[in-house]
Design brief:
The protein is an alpha+beta fold. It has helices at about 5-15, 45-60, 65-70, 75-80, 110-125, and strands at about 20-25, 30-35, 90-95, 100-105. It contains five helices and four strands. Strands 2-1-4-3 form a four-stranded antiparallel β-sheet.
């Protein structure tokens, strides 16, 4: 993900959010490219959004939702993950074609809405949502 794309993600999410959120756009290693904490966003949303993006960028699943589903009934697998991984909805990998180029994490609203905003941001930046 380029810095232009990351900024497009942040602006699109901020413009569409129905309330204050934090949004992080990261590269395919989970390193922050662009971020925004909206006025009024709860302090914990910053860390949650960053961890959602990091998880979606680095895990073997394309969303934090899919990763949570994968480990839900397997405590051994859950315990083996990177301690920075988070399993709340709102982390989504971004693709260019079939290549993962980064991810977006959104936090501050209900999980379904965080995830919707992450997908909206990815598409607004001209990137592709996860396949499937």
């Amino acid at each position: 993900m380029t810095h232009e794309q990351a900024l497009a993600v942040v602006h699109a999410v901020a413009g569409a959010a129905g309330g204050p959120v934090s949004v992080f756009a990261v590269d395919d290693h989970g390193e922050v490219i662009a971020a925004l904490v909206m006025d009024g966003a709860a302090p914990d949303t910053r860390l949650n959004a960053e961890r959602k993006a990091y998880t979606a960028a680095r895990s073997d699943q394309a969303t934090t939702r899919a990763l949570a589903d994968k480990v839900r009934d397997d405590p051994v697998e859950l315990a083996s993950f990177d301690p920075r991984f988070i399993f709340f909805l709102g982390g989504v990998a971004a693709f260019s074609g079939r290549v993962r180029v980064g991810a977006v994490g959104v936090s501050g609203l209900p999980g379904e809405e965080d995830e919707r905003l992450a997908l909206l941001g990815i598409r607004a930046a001209g990137l592709d949502a996860p396949p499937g």
